[in-house]
Specification:
The chain is an alpha/beta fold. 41% of the residues lie in helices and 16% in strands. The protein has helices at residues 37-40, 43-50, 54-64, 80-93, 97-104, 108-123, 126-129, 137-144, 205-210, 213-219, 250-276, 288-307, 338-348; strands spanning 2-4, 11-18, 24-34, 149-159, 179-186, 192-200, 227-229, 240-241. Keywords: Hydrolase, Metal-binding, Nuclease, Nucleus.
Length: 350
């Protein structure tokens, strides 16, 4: 039966429990109270709980609804709005599925299916929201005077549960934690322009880049004379600049100082992303395909938040911070220091 409250537009759905003979056990029926959170909360309360404001949720819902469906034809099913809110709440809490299932008013099994389908639907918006921009160099130049920067690149680890006893060790990173090593590139406004979420935690940052489509595009000259800027985990090339390990001259020190300040944007981008969606810092406990979809989906949502000026979330608790340890890329990929040295001599020596 369906019960509606005139005051809050809440919905209560009755779920039958069947006995051994297939007859509904009316004494043990479970009621799920499905609240209309859109009318229940103010815009600020809504944004704090779901990380997107009501307007952004409405716009997102229009784009992903064709990829969703009502989970069940019984008891009016689970609406696309409730499916989206459940998934957003899961990203915002980074907790067990049962907690968000109770919050929305569905079973744990339904919550698992919803998170999978909605994450894939949002991840499908990646080409619309996560893309290389053409006007990045001016904003980067304003940070520390570093010229012609396309984007800042780095990798970050997203903790996961061990995926499988046979391949689990591939996902154990150098700290002994199971994780995905995720590559990201951002602009000076902390917008993601590239995200790669398919490599295990044991993979080296340079290995991920060397096997990426982004590297192929750089080698083909698709981005003109603009550079990526990364740390010493990457090889120094004609299109990717890294810091000097042992600067000796004034110009080399100026180069390193500008490099560090400019490259810091990707560290800040990862920090904002993970604070907004704590599931990325806490251990993700879902299937591998869903984990990959969640990482891409949250990068899309991060860009939506930045584009709509939705304020960054202040964490109630400190999020785990990654160590600054770097595994240097010596021997990984072809090194080319001539472009970097030419830049130092012609630009930073002035």
């Amino acid at each position: 039966m369906d019960l509606f409250s005139d005051e809050s537009d809440n919905e209560m759905y009755e779920i039958g429990v069947f006995d051994s003979e297939g007859i509904v056990d009316t004494e043990n029926r479970r009621l799920y109270n499905r609240i209309n959170y859109r009318s229940e909360f103010s815009d600020s309360e809504f944004t704090y709980r779901f990380r997107l404001n009501k307007t952004s949720v409405d716009e997102l819902l229009l784009k992903i609804t064709p990829s969703l469906k009502v989970i069940s034809s019984r008891n009016n099913g689970i609406s696309p709005l409730h499916q989206l809110l459940l998934t957003l709440r899961f990203y915002a809490l980074g907790t067990m599925l049962l907690s968000v299932a109770d919050f929305i008013g569905v079973s744990k099994a339904s919550a698992s299916r919803i998170v999978h389908h909605v994450s894939r639907a949002i991840a499908g918006l990646y080409p619309q929201y996560v893309k290389t921009l053409s006007n990045t160099q001016n904003a980067f130049h304003e940070i520390a005077g570093f010229p012609r920067i396309l984007g800042a690149i780095d990798c970050t680890h997203v903790p996961i549960q061990s995926p499988d006893s046979n391949i689990g060790e591939e996902y154990r990173n150098r700290k002994g934690i199971f994780s995905m090593n995720v590559q990201g590139v951002c602009n000076a406004d902390l917008l993601f322009m590239n995200v790669v979420a398919r490599w295990p935690g044991s993979a080296h940052d340079a290995t991920i880049f060397n096997n990426s489509r982004l590297k192929m595009q750089c080698e083909e000259g698709l981005f003109g004379n603009r550079w990526l800027i990364g740390d010493s985990a990457y090889p120094c090339t004609s299109y990717l600049l890294i810091p000097l390990l042992n600067p000796t001259s004034v110009a080399e020190n100026h180069y390193n100082e500008a490099h560090i300040k400019t490259r810091n944007t990707i560290e800040r981008c990862f920090g904002v992303w993970k604070r907004r969606f704590p599931i990325l810092s806490l251990k993700i406990r879902v299937a591998m395909q869903t984990t990959q979809a969640i990482i891409i989906a949250t990068s899309v949502l991060h860009n939506i938040c930045r584009l709509n000026n939705i304020r960054d979330v202040d964490p109630e608790v400190a999020m785990p911070q990654e160590s600054g340890d770097i595994t240097y890329a010596e021997g990984i990929g072809q090194q080319n220091h001539s472009v970097r040295q030419q830049l130092i001599n012609n630009y930073f020596s002035v």
